[in-house]
Structures are given as C-alpha cells and as structure tokens.
C-alpha cells in the first residue's frame, strides 16, 4: 500500500436508510482524522427493500483506492448477492472482500481501523473481532 491509499468500506443493507445511517455512524465515530472512503449500498434501484448487485458494484468501485475494499452486509440475500458478485470476478474491484462481521459494530471497527492506514487483512480482522464485543 502506498501513502494515501486507504481500504474502502462498503455497507450493504436491505434498506438504503439503514446502510446510510450505519455509514454516517461509522464515519462519525472514526473522528475527524483521515477520511476513509465509505459507501452505502442499500435497497433496490427503485428505493425499495432488497439488495441490488448494480448498487453494490457501483459502491465498491467508488471507494476503491487501491488498498482493497471491505464489504460488510446485514442479512442473507445481501451476503448471497456479494458472493455472486465476487464469483463473477469482474464486477467488484480487485481486492474486494466479503467480511464476516456484525453489521453495525463491524462497520465501526472497519472504518476506525481503515482510518489508521491499516491494510485489508487488518481491517477485516478488526471488523470480525466485533463479534466478541460484550454488552453485559
């Protein structure tokens, strides 16, 4: 990774509002430092609930800075859509990766970690580690 290249983060939800809100939360909690490229890919092209391969691919391309793209999803078909895009091989940027992490906590961990200039493996590990966050 060269100077200035940050891991991009794509947040895929069945709801455009949920994806946008989680993106806003994660960026806000990352502080005022380095601006991590984050994109929300929620809902369908028509604004309904669901997932859109086209919106996901466009979001991933928009955050690709050459250091990889961490893709976090909310529920079942979002995961399947991202897996299908990855299997096609040419729809997502090179270095795009589906990250197995809780959606909200994982997004925050991914964006905060990416802001430090960490590589994709480190960003993905931080997001996945969010599964261990205890609340009680």
How would you characterize the overall build of this protein?
- The longest helix has 14 residues.
- The chain is globular.
- 44% of the residues lie in helices and 14% in strands.
- The chain has 136 residues and is α/β, with parallel strands linked by helices.
* Category from helices, strands and their pairing: alpha/beta
Unreliable segments (pLDDT under 50, ≥5 consecutive)?
Answer: none
Strand percentage, roughly? Answer: 5-15%
Please write the string of helix (H) and strand (E) elements.
EHEHEHEHH
User: Helix coverage percent of residues?
Assistant: 40-55%
Describe the SSE topology:
Layout: E1 8-13, H1 16-29, E2 38-42, H2 53-63, E3 69-73, H3 76-88, E4 96-98, H4 103-114, H5 120-129
Parallel strand pairs: 1-2, 1-3, 3-4
What brief labels describe this structure?
136 residues, alpha/beta, four-stranded parallel beta sheet, 5 helices
Summarize the structure.
Helices cover 44% and strands 14% of the residues.
């Amino acid at each position: 990774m060269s100077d200035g290249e940050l891991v991009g983060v794509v947040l895929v939800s069945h709801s455009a509002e949920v994806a946008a809100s989680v993106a806003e939360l994660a960026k806000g909690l990352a502080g005022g430092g380095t601006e991590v490229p984050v994109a929300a890919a929620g809902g369908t092209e028509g604004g309904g609930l669901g997932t859109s391969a086209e919106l996901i691919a466009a979001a991933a391309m928009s955050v690709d800075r050459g250091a990889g793209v961490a893709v976090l999803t909310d529920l079942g078909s979002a995961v399947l859509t991202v897996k299908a895009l990855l299997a096609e091989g040419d729809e997502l940027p090179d270095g795009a990766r589906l990250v197995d992490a809780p959606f909200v906590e994982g997004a925050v961990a991914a964006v905060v970690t990416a802001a430090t200039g960490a590589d994709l493996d480190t960003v993905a590990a931080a997001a996945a580690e969010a599964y261990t966050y205890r609340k009680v």
